Amino acid sequence: MTSTDLQQPRDATTEATLLVDALVAAFVNARIYAITHPRVQTSIADLQRTLRELAVATGEPTVVIGAAEGLIIHKQSPLLGASIGAARLIALLRTWGSGGLEFGARVETQELETLLVAMATRPQPGHDYNQLNETLAARQCQLARLLPPYASTAPTGDRANAVDSTVRVGLRFYQSVIDLLQNVTVSVCRGGRIDFAPVQAQAEQVLKQLQNREQPLLGLARQDQYDAFTFGHSVRVAILSMNFAKTLTDDHGLLIRIGTAALLHDVGKSLIPFELLHSTRTLNAEERLQMNRHAELGAECLLDHNDSDPLAVAAAFGHHRSPDGTGYPRTLHAHHISMVSRIVKICDVFEALTASRPYKQPMSPIRAYRVMLAMGQKLDQSLLRKFIESNGIYPNGQLVQMTDGAVAVVHAQGKDPLRPIVSIADTVVPDLVEEDQQLLDLGDIECCGARAILAELTPTQAQELIRRAAE
User: Fold this and answer.
1) Per-residue pLDDT reduced to its tens digit, 275-330
2) Phi-psi category of 126—alpha, beta or left, where left has phi over 0 and alpha has psi -120 to 50?
3) SS3 string of 47-115?
4) For 132-263, where are the E strands, in sequence order?
5) How many helices (DSSP H) and strands (DSSP E) are in the chain?
6) What sign does the dihedral 326-329-334-339 (CA atoms) show?
7) Helix-strand-coil percent breakdown of the chain, rounded to 5?
8) Which of 191, 237, 308, 370 is an S-S bond match for 302, by CB 3.0 to 4.6 Å?
9) Which has the closest alpha carbon to 21: 270, 236, 235, 227?
């Protein structure tokens, strides 16, 4: 990808999602540090930038972000990817009886500082967003305010009101995992302790979700966006790791330990400077070395706890080490890489290749497999082949174009890796299976005939094809 590609304008939905991520980063940083701390100031500057970019994308000087029923909403449409990481923001708005936020595109740094501090204060009995807005106005905060409870003006049946109950259940669960990792990060940054019991409990819930084919956890994982603290990355790696590991063992306790290790594998990034972690530019050699320290910092953090699991320590330390002895952290003597670390490493690389980042477009799963196979002994190749087999040529949640032109989403793997079970998508949020959608087993030739997958699609490509078909 060229620098020209990176500078191409993004659509309003993408900009709105990035804005929500910037909001969450600002609120999390404000929980950890004083409002004048460089990390808070950096996140405020990022928030200002995304506000201006969204205003340009919409052509409007005012930006409105709504919140209702656990969803972040922009322009009457739910932002599922943004909603996943915004549980704390949604809860904070609910505390004030508010249904969203309104910003002027040119909001000043001091105004955002005032908003962050004011919202973090628990409202007095009987007070709601009206009193908070009065406080903001009295402190010269004119371009940021809380909104009344969200009320959709869209027609009945609009997608903003029609996210089905199955998706909502999965979304609420996913939000709870992200919220847990946010709390872990806040605790680590403040020099506090990690409570492993809730992490293990969430790993067990992930396993239950993966064992229930009716729950759209893998599909939701593909909705998630890049976030400043890599919470989404850690959850996706955990989902991939547990989904893979359950094909290798039926030891329930071991699977929970693997999930816990995967959720915490990047805990060391909590101790990396925010400006490096959230950088959208290429890091120089010195900065890269500093970033690479997250592996040893994570292991040291976990070792500082008497009740930490050795598998979690090993995964935190070894998920960037390779079977051929390369990678980091470097050791003076030969260092055995545990099976759990190898599993987490494979899932970590796959997620990094296939996920969206501010500086790159997501790679298709098939292309990612090719890249990983070409890495040779940088990865455990025997384990990698098993991962590809279990994850599928077209992984669950992958958007595809059918030979008849229809857009579909992969729902489950079939007997033939090239012919999975899919559902036809006809909405603007095409990669989630709704309760009443019919599943098609492409391996059932009598039912589907020659109907097959023609190509993989990105969400943007899928939405464009659906839009054209509706015209």
Assistant:
1) 788 777 788 999 999 999 999 999 999 999 999 999 999 999 999 999 888 999 98
2) left
3) HHHHHHHHHHHHCCCEEEEEEECCEEEECCEECHHHHHCCHHHHHHHHHCCCCEEEEECCCCHHHHHHH
4) 144-147
5) 21, 10
6) negative
7) 55, 10, 35
8) 308
9) 227
- Are 404 and 326 contained in the same domain? no
Q: Give the single-character DSSP code of 410.
A: E
User: Which range has the worst mean pLDDT, 186-190, 250-254, 276-280, 345-349?
Assistant: 276-280
Q: Are residues 76 and 221 in the same domain?
A: no
d(CA 152, CA 82): 18
> Which among 359, 391, 423 is the end of a domain?
391
Q: Is the pLDDT of residue 347 over 90?
A: yes
Q: What CATH number is attached to the domain comprising 248?
A: 1.10.3210.10
Q: Which domain holds residue 185?
A: 165-391
Instruction: Considering only residues 263 and 15, tell me which one the structure prediction assigns the higher pLDDT.
Output: 263
Phi, then psi, of 284 in degrees rounded to 5: -80, 175
Are residues 427 and 359 both part of a single domain? no
Q: Is the peptide bond before 329 cis (omega within 30 degrees of 0)?
A: yes
DSSP β-bridge partners for residue 342: none
Give 348's contacts (C-beta < 8 A, 6+ positions apart).
Answer: 237, 265, 319, 320
Tell whether 104 and 233 lie within a shared domain: no
Q: What is the pLDDT of residues 446-470, one digit of tens each?
A: 777 788 888 888 777 887 888 787 7
- 101-120 pLDDT, tens digit each: 999 999 999 999 999 999 98
Phi, psi angle pair for 131, to nearest 5°: -65, -35
Domain count, the chain: 3
The residue type of 151 is A
